[in-house]
């Protein structure tokens, strides 16, 4: 009996607690601030859009110089209108356009969201047809040894004392202009001619030609080497040589022989020319010319 | 008595000697911290090895472990037209459909892994002071700077503007951690690091930094920036060493490790399993954690069939278990192709030992062509043709080539270096990503837009930056 009473007591307590919580629930659901706002006007209690659309894009040219692609980098937008400034337009996300010709076009992107908040961004596109860059024609200074330099010396700018004693100038043997570079007995008086910093376009085929003569006598030679970049010591010459030619025709002072060296400039934006000789007979070098190989 | 005096004197001496400072204040031998650990060159070398361990990543199923370069294929190859998931499921499929969420766990894992690699490199650089031999110190510095540049080059190409961290920082240095700096500043650091690396390294290693690896990486950096002449010089330096060459058989490039074609690879070993990799198994049919990822697209199959030559058979195969699908044939787990059904392996495929090739000689030869082409649409330069022909000859395509167009070169790179995480970067560098990927996306019903060329900065970084970090457009 005692136990049954206890049970009924606890049952009563549970019923009480249940009804209290039901009453609470009723109270909560009657709160006008929760059920009421569905009748409010949209403007009331609404918050400002903290992330309005922001239009932006970047343009890049394609292989065809008239066609550009436009990468859309806008934020917080859903709809896009492109105006390419040439009468064309688009509503794609990313866009591409082929312009009618050279000129300046203002491309405008209008980005908007579903609140009809818009943002615009414009960029001017300058369309120019790029000419294929012409290869640099090498400019060899004082190519015939007939121009006096700043100090009146006809060896300018063929001088580099680190590589050796500078060649002489002959006035008695010449192909053109009255003077030529002269290389006396190489065994007793070795000399060099060196011109550096001759600008070239990389990876381009070139032709350099020159004339030489060697007096009769013991076997002798004149070597002209085309070097990539510059050298500061004779030990670097072998590694830097792109192409060289060693002339051995010994027909005397005056009959000059013309030599043509064809080479590719490779990974060099400048070249150097180095002239050396061997043997006891005097040699002469004259009139360098340079051209881009067609 | 005399003797006792002597004994006392000796004892006294012993007491005096033992009462030095380090007896009373001994350096704790069990409490090693990063602040007191580095005291000798050998200990700094452990930090050097630790960098490569970071790139290697942890082979585990825990997404919170840094998986290093093992996840790279998701972010690169599966975002190109080369590969996709087998069953278009899960966050892995976000990459192929150009629908990557800022919360993608694979993206944040890669980001965290490579910043961790940068941290490890910075630790080496911060502790060079204890290395007494200046030559050894210079070498460690060069190695650390190579690794740092490698990590930054990957990150800057994937994420765009990123935080520049060039020293060991602490959690309180929030400004540095969350300030995105312009890509040009990142490239400045990469170039200066690689220049130091080239000066300080030789060609001793293939799975550690080497001079040729730094040269090849810098050449690629220069090509990315359109700085062609120095890139050409670097490629020619590598070609002229004569230390590298193409393997006669294309298959041997991948299954005869450390061969003459390898310039830089991340080393893995099947045993111990802590040095192993799981990506090989993921590329098989339901062998790894996924049902199969990095499966070959029909687009890539078409390109390989038409232009691969001898390389095609060694690049992909029909999945023996599911013959409508195609799998990558480079990097079979431990070289085991998985038996008749393609999924039965002699050894555990999820702990494979295949080295991951980062730079190889064929890549350098094709970069040489790219450098000479110098942004033009075509070249018939002799040196360029020689390099191009070498790569094609090995593939059995021996008909002499008389001129190479930009598209020819891009295609040759695609079939030569397929599934080696080059394709996406090649498309972007060649200025072809927009046209190629938008067409590919349209054909397959994917959602490519131009903003997909950069990945999102991981959302957890944005969150903990407390407003300092802004997301990339489109995410």
TrEMBL record, chain A:
InterPro entries named in the record: Ig-like_fold, PKD/Chitinase_dom, PKD_dom, PKD_dom_sf
Annotated SUPFAM superfamilies: PKD domain (SSF49299)
Organismal lineage: Bacteria, Pseudomonadati, Bacteroidota, Flavobacteriia, Flavobacteriales
SMART domains, per database record: PKD
Domain PKD: from-to ranges: 49-127
UniProt-listed CDD domains: PKD (cd00146)
Source organism superkingdom: Bacteria
PROSITE patterns reported for this sequence: PKD, PROKAR_LIPOPROTEIN
Gene3D superfamilies noted in UniProt: Galactose-binding domain-like, Immunoglobulins
Parts forming coiled coils: none
Protein name: PKD domain-containing protein
One Pfam assignment: PKD_4
TrEMBL record, chain B:
Gene Ontology cellular-component terms listed: cell outer membrane
Keywords: Cell outer membrane, Membrane, Signal
Signal peptide: 1-21
Organism: Cerina litoralis
The protein's name in its UniProt record: RagB/SusD family nutrient uptake outer membrane protein
Main location as per UniProt: membrane
Domain RagB/SusD: 349-475
Gene3D superfamilies, A to Z: 1.25.40.390
Compartments (UniProt record): Cell outer membrane
Highest taxon listed in the record's lineage: Bacteria
Lineage summary: Bacteria, Pseudomonadati, Bacteroidota, Flavobacteriia, Flavobacteriales
Family: Belongs to the SusD family.
Record-annotated SusD-like N-terminal domain positions: 45-223
């Amino acid at each position: 009996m005692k136990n049954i009473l206890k049970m009924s007591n606890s049952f009563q307590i549970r019923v009480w607690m249940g009804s209290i919580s039901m009453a609470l629930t009723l109270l909560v659901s009657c709160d006008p601030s929760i059920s009421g706002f569905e009748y409010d006007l949209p403007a009331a209690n609404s918050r400002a859009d903290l992330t309005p659309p922001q239009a932006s894009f970047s343009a890049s040219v394609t292989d065809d110089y008239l066609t550009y692609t436009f990468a859309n980098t806008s934020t917080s937008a859903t709809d896009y209108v492109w105006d390419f400034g040439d009468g064309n337009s688009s509503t794609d996300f990313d866009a591409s356009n082929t312009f009618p010709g050279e000129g300046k076009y203002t491309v405008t992107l209008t980005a908007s969201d579903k609140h009809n908040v818009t943002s615009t961004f414009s960029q001017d596109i300058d369309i120019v047809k790029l000419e294929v860059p012409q290869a640099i024609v090498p400019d060899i200074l004082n190519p015939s040894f007939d121009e006096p330099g700043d100090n009146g010396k006809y060896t300018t700018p063929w001088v580099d004392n680190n590589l050796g004693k500078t060649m002489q100038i002959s006035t008695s043997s010449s192909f053109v202009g009255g003077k030529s570079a002269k290389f006396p007995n190489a065994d007793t008086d070795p000399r060099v001619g060196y011109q550096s910093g001759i600008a070239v376009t990389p990876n381009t085929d070139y032709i350099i030609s020159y004339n030489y003569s060697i007096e009769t006598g013991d076997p002798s030679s004149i070597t002209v080497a085309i070097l990539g970049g510059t050298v500061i010591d004779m030990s670097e010459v072998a590694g830097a040589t792109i192409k060289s030619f060693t002339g051995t025709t010994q027909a005397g002072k005056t009959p000059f022989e013309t030599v043509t060296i064809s080479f590719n400039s490779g990974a060099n934006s400048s070249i150097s020319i180095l002239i050396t000789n061997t043997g006891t007979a005097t040699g002469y070098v004259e009139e360098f010319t340079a051209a881009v190989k067609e | 008595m005399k003797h006792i005096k002597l004994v006392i004197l000796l004892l006294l001496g012993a007491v005096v000697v033992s009462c030095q400072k380090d007896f009373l204040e001994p350096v704790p031998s069990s409490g090693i911290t990063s602040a007191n650990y580095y005291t000798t060159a050998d200990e700094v070398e452990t930090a050097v090895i630790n960098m490569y361990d970071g790139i290697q990543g942890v082979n585990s199923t825990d997404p919170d472990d840094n998986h290093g370069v093992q996840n790279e294929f998701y972010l690169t190859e599966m975002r190109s037209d080369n590969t996709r998931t087998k069953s278009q499921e899960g966050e892995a499929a976000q990459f192929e459909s150009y629908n990557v969420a800022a919360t993608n766990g694979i993206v944040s894992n890669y980001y965290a892994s490579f910043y961790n690699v940068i941290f490890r490199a910075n630790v080496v650089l911060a502790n060079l002071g204890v290395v007494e031999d200046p030559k050894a110190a210079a070498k460690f510095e060069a190695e650390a700077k190579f690794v740092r540049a490698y990590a930054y080059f990957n990150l800057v190409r994937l994420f765009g503007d990123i935080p520049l961290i060039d020293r060991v920082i602490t959690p309180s240095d929030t400004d540095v951690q969350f300030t995105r700096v312009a890509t040009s500043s990142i490239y400045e650091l990469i170039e200066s690091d690689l220049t130091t690396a080239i000066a300080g390294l030789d060609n001793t290693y293939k799975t550690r930094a080497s001079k040729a690896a730094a040269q090849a990486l810098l050449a690629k950096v220069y090509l990315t920036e359109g700085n062609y002449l120095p890139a050409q010089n670097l490629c020619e330096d590598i070609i002229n060493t004569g230390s590298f060459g193409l393997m006669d058989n294309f298959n041997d490039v991948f299954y005869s490790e450390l061969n003459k074609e390898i310039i830089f690879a991340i080393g893995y070993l099947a045993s111990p399993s802590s040095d192993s990799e799981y990506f090989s198994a993921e590329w098989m049919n339901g062998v790894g954690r996924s049902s199969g990822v990095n499966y070959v697209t029909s687009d890539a199959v078409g390109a390989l069939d038409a232009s691969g030559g001898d390389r095609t058979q060694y690049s992909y195969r029909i999945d023996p278990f599911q013959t409508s699908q195609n799998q990558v044939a480079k990097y079979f787990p431990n070289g085991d192709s998985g038996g008749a059904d393609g999924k039965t392996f002699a050894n555990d495929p999820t702990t494979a030992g295949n080295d991951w090739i980062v730079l190889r000689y064929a890549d350098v030869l094709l970069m040489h062509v790219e450098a000479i082409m110098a942004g033009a649409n075509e070249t018939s330069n002799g040196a360029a043709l020689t390099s191009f022909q070498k790569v094609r000859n090995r593939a059995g395509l021996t008909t002499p080539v008389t001129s190479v167009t930009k598209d020819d070169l891009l295609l040759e790179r695609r079939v030569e270096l397929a599934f080696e995480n080059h394709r996406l970067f090649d498309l972007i560098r060649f200025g072809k990503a927009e046209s190629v990927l938008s067409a590919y996306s349209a054909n397959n019903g994917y959602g490519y837009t131009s903003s997909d060329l950069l990945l999102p900065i991981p959302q957890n970084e944005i969150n903990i930056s407390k407003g300092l970090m802004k997301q990339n457009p489109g995410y």
